[in-house]
Write a structure and sequence with these properties.
This is DUF4166 domain-containing protein. InterPro entries: DUF4166 (IPR025311). Strands 1-2-3-4-5-6-7-9-10-11 form a ten-stranded antiparallel β-barrel. The chain is an alpha+beta fold. The chain contains three helices and eleven strands. The chain has a single domain, classed as Calycin beta-barrel core domain (Lipocalin), CATH 2.40.128.
């Protein structure tokens, strides 16, 4: 696919399985805005979840925040820059490996690198984690954080959800909401 974005090239013919609004977003890039709701776990998991929120500049006592996501294609990778409320920008870089449906993406955010396969259903996209590295060291499943995330178009809005779990502790943090394309 000459001139294709990383997402178009990775999906190939499977790109048509995505909702037209997701196709447009991943063809042209864009900016999403809206309010998201947060949920933290209980006990030690909740303590860790609140610490993560503070690190993102989010007051854990506030269950909702404004979210702005800037999505761009840069040198063959996908760049997602997220800003919750007035907090700092959190950037993830997604590098495609192979091709859909057997290939995967590598998400890098700071010292953490996740290997993620993609499942499509009803025009949406769900990440399925297949590996995790911290500072280049592979983490075994019994030690690694597990991320469950997906996106779809619902009632004309971009609907997403993310949950992070730690072995033995359970869910530490989850967030999600409906976003709209910003001008």
């Amino acid at each position: 696919m000459s001139g294709a974005t990383p997402v178009e090239a990775w999906f190939g013919d499977g790109f048509a399985r995505l909702h037209p609004s997701l196709q447009s977003l991943h063809r042209e890039g864009g900016r999403l805005e809206g309010r998201v709701s947060f949920r933290v776990g209980r006990g030690l998991a909740g303590t860790i979840g609140r610490r993560v929120l503070r690190r993102l500049g989010i007051d854990p006592a506030s269950p909702e925040q404004r979210l702005v996501v800037d999505i761009r294609h840069v040198d063959g990778v996908l760049r997602w820059a997220r800003r919750f409320g007035d907090g700092q920008e959190a950037v993830s870089w997604f590098r495609p490996v192979g091709r859909w449906p057997d290939g995967h993406w590598e998400e890098r955010a700071g010292p953490l690198k996740l290997r993620l396969m993609v499942d499509t259903d009803g025009g949406g996209w769900r990440w399925r984690q297949i590996g995790c590295r911290l500072w280049r060291l592979p983490l075994p499943a019994w030690l690694a954080p597990a991320v469950d995330a997906g996106k779809r178009i619902e009632d004309g809005h971009y609907r997403f959800d993310v949950a992070i779990r730690l072995p033995l502790l359970g869910e530490i943090l989850a967030w999600g909401g409906h976003l709209r394309m910003a001008c």
